[in-house]
C-alpha cells in the first residue's frame, strides 16, 4: 500500500517508508492512497472468525506485500494477545475494555504492532533507528513496553514532569535497556513540539522516527478492537453509537477507518476534557488550537490534536458530512468525577476518568431505542489510582504487571528546552 502526505508536497511513500520515517518530509501525516471496504459476507459472518483472523483481514491491505503473510500473522499474534471484552454498564451501554494488555491501556496494541513492524523493516541494517516519542501519559509506558529489547531500535521518551501519574511515570522510566526517558519541564505540547523540532533539525543525522499515533503502524491496528466489539454485539441487532475519549484523536480516527471498511457503526462521539479544540470547531467551524490544560484525564490533555486532519480527510474536508456522522463534546473535571460516582452507584462499575468522559459523551449525545452505546475504557482505573480512590469508595487492587514496575527505580534525564534534547541526540 502507498501513502501520501496530507500536506501534498512530498512524494508517495511505501508502508515501510511511512513506518520508518513516521512523518512525511513536508511534515504532513501519511494517509493511505486507497481504502477498500471488506466484503459484506465477512462482516455479516464476523462471528465465525478468530480475533487474529479479523485483525489480519483488517490490516492486510494497508501493509500490502511489504511484510510476508506468515510474518504479518506472527506480528498480529504478538499484538492481539489479550482480551477486549464489552462489559455491560447500563441496559443500553457497554464499556469496551481496552486495558487488558501489558501496560493496561489501549496503546499497547498500536505500540506492539509498530515495534514489530519496525524491527522487521530494520533487520539487517547496521544503523539503529531512534524512536522519539512525546507522551501525555500512556503512550510512554506502552511504547517502552512494546519496544523493549527490539533489535536495532533505540527509544527516547519525552514526558511532562509532574503531569503523568506515578504508575505511568514508573512504566516509562524503569525499564532500562534500549529505553531512555527525558523528563521535560513543561506540558505535553512542549514535549510534542520538541519532538517535531528534532525531526526537522538537519544537524541530527541519526535516523529518527515517531511512535506517536501519527505513525501509520500505531494508528491503523487500533481498528482491530472496533471489529472485535462488533463481533461481540452483533447479535443484539442494534445500531452502534461509539464514544471515544479523545486527546490526539488517533483512536477515534481508527474507528472511523473501520467504518470506512464497512463496519456498521452508526455514529461516533469524540469525548474530550476541557481541551476542547475539536468540539469548538464543530460548533463554530473555526479550528483554533490552544495550549493544553492539565486535567484528571491527563492522557487527553492535548490542545492541538494531530490526527484531526486525518478525520477531515476521511470526510473529504466536508464539515457538513463530518457533522452528520460525528459529534464532539467537552466535559469538565467536576462532571467527570460526578459521572464516575454515578456509574459506580448505578452499576458498581469502576471507570477511570477517561472512560467516564466517554460515558458522558454517550449521555450527552443521547441514545434512541434501537441504539446501543459503547464507550471505550481506554485505561485500567489503577493507572489513575489517586483520582479513582479520591472519587469512589473503593480500593483498587494493583494488578501484578503494575506491582512489578512500582518496585523499580525511576531513571530519567531532565530536559528544559529543545537544546537539551538535541545535546542528548548528538551524543
Ligand atoms: C492516549 C489516551 C487517550 C487518547 O487517545 P487519542 O488516540 O490520543 O485520542 C485516551 N485515554 C487514554 C487512557 C489514553 O492513554
**What are the segments in which pLDDT stays under 50 over at least 5 consecutive residues?**
none
User: What is the 3D form?
Assistant: globular
Mean pLDDT: 95
The computed structural class is alpha/beta
Furnish the topology, listing elements before pairings.
Layout: E1 2-5, E2 13-14, H1 15-21, E3 30-32, H2 40-44, H3 51-63, H4 69-79, E4 86-90, E5 93-97, H5 107-122, E6 129-134, H6 138-147, E7 153-160, H7 166-173, E8 179-184, H8 188-200, E9 207-210, H9 216-219, H10 224-233, E10 239-245, H11 250-260, E11 267-272, H12 277-284, H13 308-314, H14 319-325, E12 326-330, H15 333-347, H16 353-365, E13 371-377, H17 385-391, H18 400-406, E14 413-415, H19 418-426
Parallel strand pairs: 5-13, 6-7, 6-9, 7-8, 8-14, 10-11, 10-13, 11-12
Antiparallel strand pairs: 1-2, 1-3, 4-5
Helix pairs in contact: 3-4, 4-5, 5-6, 6-7, 11-13, 15-16
The structure holds pyridoxal-5'-phosphate.
Descriptive account of the structure:
This protein is an alpha/beta fold and 427 residues long. The protein has a domain at 85-105 and 219-396: 3-Layer(aba) Sandwich (Rossmann fold). It has helices at residues 15-21, 40-44, 51-63, 69-79, 107-122, 138-147, 166-173, 188-200, 216-219, 224-233, 250-260, 277-284, 308-314, 319-325, 333-347, 353-365, 385-391, 400-406, 418-426; strands spanning 2-5, 13-14, 30-32, 86-90, 93-97, 129-134, 153-160, 179-184, 207-210, 239-245, 267-272, 326-330, 371-377, 413-415. Strand 7 (153-160), helix 7 and strand 8 (179-184) form a beta-alpha-beta unit. Helix 15 (333-347) crosses helix 16 (353-365). The protein is globular and about 60 Å long. The two termini are 36 Å apart. 52% of the residues are buried. Pyridoxal-5'-phosphate binds at residues 105, 107, 137-138, 213, 245-251, 299-300, 354, 378-379.
